[in-house]
Amino acid sequence: MTDTLKIDRTIMAQAGALLEAARGRGDLLATAESCTGGLLAATLTAIPGASDVFERGFVTYSNASKSEMLGVPAWLIERHGSVSEDVARAMAGGALTHSRATLAVAITGIAGPAGGSAEKPVGLVHLAAARRDAPVRHEQLLLGDIGRDEIRRESVARALALLASLLRGE
Asked: Which among 74, 79, 138, 82 is positioned nearest to 109, based on CA atoms?
């Protein structure tokens, strides 16, 4: 067994536990992903029976898609950049607005190997999780240049953890 496979099994167990908890509470989930390119949605839907909990996923890799699919204002992206707390929060809110979900999570970041800068380095990821009629939670990750695959995997794991904490009311 390789380390990558071990990490994948851990993340799959985490996803299964999240789906079970959401199912128990009657919640529906939506995802809004940029740098992970649908990896979170793919992880959730790899679990048998996910269809009664996973409502939909938005893959909004481009700035235009963030605006068109999630309603993120173009001026917000221009002012703060697509990799920012403000845009992550708007993505999570947009996922709720444009779905029947009761919980949503958004991921936007720089997976590399290119695209980073001194202000926004490779490995910078912003996550936001929202429940209808509740404040949006935000988490910033500074993962470093640990490789594109690892940045994406860690982003998925942290997004699952953030959703789970929201479900628990933490």
From this structure: 82
- Please give the backbone phi and psi of residue 109, each rounded to the nearest 5 degrees, phi first: -170, -175
pLDDT value for 133: 85
Q: Is 126 left (phi over 0), alpha (psi -120 to 50) or beta?
A: beta
Max Cα–Cα distance, the chain, nearest Å: 47
Q: Which residues contact 97 (CB under 8 A, 6 or more apart)?
A: 70, 71
Pairing of strands 103-109, 124-131: antiparallel
Q: Is the pLDDT of residue 2 over 70?
A: no
Tokens of 142: 């500074």
Residue 34 to residue 14: CA distance in whole angstroms: 21
Q: What is the pLDDT of residues 52-103, one digit of tens each?
A: 999 999 999 999 999 999 999 999 999 999 999 999 999 999 999 999 999 9
